[in-house]
Amino acid sequence: METKVEQMDIDLVYLWVDGEDPKWQAKFKTFIGKTDENSSNNCKGRYVNNDELKYSLRSIENYAPWVRNIFIVTDNQVPEWLDLSHPKIKIIDHKEILPKESRPCFNSCLLEYFLYRIPGLAEHFLYANDDMFLNKPTTPETFFTAEGLPIIRLTRKPFRKLRWFFREEICKKPLKNYSKTIGRAAKLVEKKYGRYFTGMPHHNIDAYLRSDYQRIVEKDFRAEYSANKVTHLRHDNDIQRSIISYVALAKRRGDLRYVSQNESIILMIHKENHYRKFTEKQPMFFCMNDSEYAQDTDRMKAMDFLEKLFPAKSEFEK
User: Fold this and answer.
1) CA nearest 196: which of 157, 152, 153?
2) Which H/E stretch holds residue 259?
3) Is 33 left (phi over 0), alpha (psi -120 to 50) or beta?
4) 162 — alpha (psi -120 to 50), left (phi > 0) or beta?
5) CATH of domain 5-309
6) Is the pTM higher than 0.70?
7) Alpha carbon 268 to chain centroid distance?
8) I want to staple 63 with a disulfide (CB 3.0 to 4.6 A). Which of 134, 169, 222, 276 is the partner?
C-alpha cells in the first residue's frame, strides 16, 4: 500500500541570475554602483553565473527523477543552454510573484518571501539555490514524512545563541549578514512561540508545504515581512527562510533531522581541503559555495569538478 508521500506531486524551485548580463548589470548598478569584493552581501561571487544550474539539474535528473515540475525564478533572463520546450521546465519572472514595490530585486531573502506565489506550485515543494546538488539517489521520503510533513535538516549548534551574544555584546564583533538574518528568524519564532531553535540551515535543498509557507508570510509574520518589501539589496534586517522551518518545528508541522557532513556538505570553492572532505564523505547533499574569498581560478576549478562529477548532458539541455 502506498504511503501519502508516494502519492504526492512534488515540485522543485530554483532562483537563478546571470550576473554577467549587461542589462542586468546596468539595472544592478543603479542601486549599488559596483560590486564590493570584500562584502559577503554584494561581491562578484554572489551573482556570477558559472552554469552551476546546469550541473544541479543533471544531479536532479540522476538522483530525483520523480520531481514533477522545475520552476526557475529569474529576472527577465533565461539560461542559453536550457531547453524551454521540456515539459517539466517552467520559467517564472520576478514580476509574476514579486509586488511592484519589491522590484527590481537583488536580494534572495526578499525573493524567497514570495515563493508560494508561483502559479501552479504544488503543495509539497523543494527549494534550492543553483549551487546546490544531489550526490546520491533520493525518493520523496528523503524530503517528506509518510504523513506528508517536511523533513527539516539542520546542523547542530547547541550554543549558538550564547556564542553570538558573546561575539556581538562582549567582543563587539558584528555578525555577518547571513548570521544576522538567521538570528532574526530564530528570535521572531522565540517571541511568538516560546521556542528558540539553535540549529543552522544545512544550506542545501529543503522541503516546504506551500500552505504553511503562505500562512507564515501573510499571517503569522505579516507585519515583519511587509516592512521588508522594499529591501532591494541584502540587509541585516532581512528574515532568512529558516523561519519557515523553525515555525514548522514549533507547531509540530515538520520532522527535525540534524545532519552531519556525512549527509550534507558546504564546499567552499576556494578551500582545497573541502574537495578532499567531499571525496572522503561522499554526502547526499552538497553546495558549491562561492564567496568574497573566491577568485576566478577557484571558479574554473569548481566547474571542472562539476563537469567530472556530472559529465552527461541532461534532458533539460538543448
Assistant:
1) 157
2) strand 255-259
3) left
4) alpha
5) 3.90.550.10
6) yes
7) 16
8) 134
